[in-house]
Amino acid sequence: MTAITYELIKTCKQTGARLGKVHTPHGSFDTPMFMPVGTLATVKTMSPEELKEIDAKIILSNTYHLWLRPGSDIIKDAGGLHKFMNWDRPILTDSGGFQVFSLSKIRDIKEEGVHFRNHISGEKLFLSPEKAMQIQNDLGSDIMMAFDECPPYPASYDYMKASVERTSRWAERCLSAHQSPGNQGLFGIIQGGEYEDLRKQSAQDLASLDLPGYAIGGLSVGEPKNIMNRMLEYTTPLMPANKPRYLMGVGSPDSLIDGSIRGIDMFDCVLPTRIARNGTCMTSTGRLVVRNAKYARDFSPIDENCGCHVCKNYTRAYIRHLIKCNETFGFRLTTYHNLHFLLKLMEQVREAISEDRLGDFKEAFFEKYGFNQP
Ligand SMILES: CNc1nc2c(CC[C@H]3O[C@H](OC)[C@H](OC)[C@@H](OC)[C@@H]3OC)c3nc(N)[nH]c(=O)c3cc2[nH]1
Q: Is there a contact between 247 and 267 (Cβ–Cβ < 8 Å)?
């Protein structure tokens, strides 16, 4: 019995987008879906109750960070991450691979794993496929990501080939080390950078492991958008059609729509929560930097077209004041609104797919939001 199953409901006749449902031990969610990021066992400034108010169905957390603080053993003793953070819906954890490459300056990648320094204390650490699986087993997340190398952009073909082949061997080791396939699903991560043949090799290696889901990794790491879209177009059709497809680290409203059109089901990005904390909001007519002086006497909501709790009860002037005074409540209001905005956007994307009009929806949204049509 696998912990994670995917139900393909329909494919949009106008685009390559698909409507689906992912079933996990902690509940199901419709796809395409945006997953709020909760790195340190909290979606910054949001309570689980507020996340449910905006209908967040699945959140992310982070193996590397939780391993360092508070320690996955403490979370295991608490009965797992769901109990520890009082979240009874699905949780996905990244394997720590990306964080090792993005956070620690000094690292040494070997076949057995990665030697690096704790980015907080400087102590020497070692992360391997087996260790990453043990930590995620301790956390009890519903979806675990395989331990991979996410190479920097750009990377040479030779470096990328060696890295892809090692990531495939690491994925096999993750599968062998998986202690609880009945209640946690292991997703493979397709690498290969901007090289079609390496993307194909990575996809085939991982598909042969028959995992319950697959991610496209190694994108949204600074490459130009046309390279990301070209790699998406090439890689997505290589992925099993009866499994969820997760594009890691993406993204902005236009990327969520473009990714859905190319057949992606799951997205994560720190963007909505990160920009919220510096007073930038997503609205149906583009970004609004609410801390700007021009909003000092603007007593209208962040977004006239938004029905969220924040837009119903608070004004731009009030939120600007809180942000300027570095008041936590200000960041809570902008975060709540931005997450609601993206979750609502994905609901509209799902509706458009069900009515075979996602292409039309994209044009209308891009026009209103101000994205230049590619
Ligand atoms: C931004 N572009 C971006 N993010 C990539 C992440 C990390 C996703 C990770 O990104 C933050 O960690 C840094 C989030 O925490 C702040 C994590 O949420 C808990 C999230 O975990 C899924 C990748 N992770 C792996 N394992 N492999 C990848 O190839 C990869 C590619 C990414 N591109």
A: yes
332 near 46, Cβ under 8 Å? Answer: yes
Ligand 1 geometric centre to CA of 170 (Å) = 17
Give the ipTM of the model, two decimals please: 0.96
Indicate which residues carry an active-site annotation: 94, 268
Any atom of ligand 1 within 6 Å of the Cβ of 145: yes
Q: How far is the CA of 97 from the CAs of 146, 148, 344, in angstroms?
A: 8, 5, 31
Average pLDDT, the chain: 96
Q: Give dist(CA 357, CA 319) in Å, integer.
A: 36
Which residue from 283, 289, 271 is spatially nearest to 307, judged by alpha carbons? Answer: 283
221 CB less than 6 Å from ligand 1? Answer: yes
Structure tokens at 289: 């930097």
The SS3 assignment for 301 reads coil
Counts of helices then strands in the chain (DSSP H, E): 15, 16
pLDDT band at residue 160 using 50, 70 and 90 as cut-offs: very high
- Look at ligand 1, atom 2, and give the residue with the nearest C-alpha: 249
If phi > 0 it is left, if psi is from -120 to 50 it is alpha, else beta; for residue 86 that is left
What would the two tokens of residue 175 be? 């599968």
- Calculate how far, in angstroms, residue 359's C-alpha sits from the geometric centre of ligand 1: 28
Asked whether residue 374 carries a pLDDT value surpassing 60, the answer given is: no
Say how many Å lie between the CA of residue 321 and the centre of ligand 1. 33
Confidence band for 1, pLDDT divided at 50, 70 and 90: low
Q: Strand ranges (DSSP E) for the chain? A: 5-11, 18-24, 27-31, 33-35, 59-62, 91-94, 107-109, 114-117, 124-127, 143-145, 185-190, 213-216, 245-247, 266-268, 280-283, 286-289
Residues 6 or more apart whose Cβ sits within 8 Å of residue 283: 302, 303, 305, 306, 341
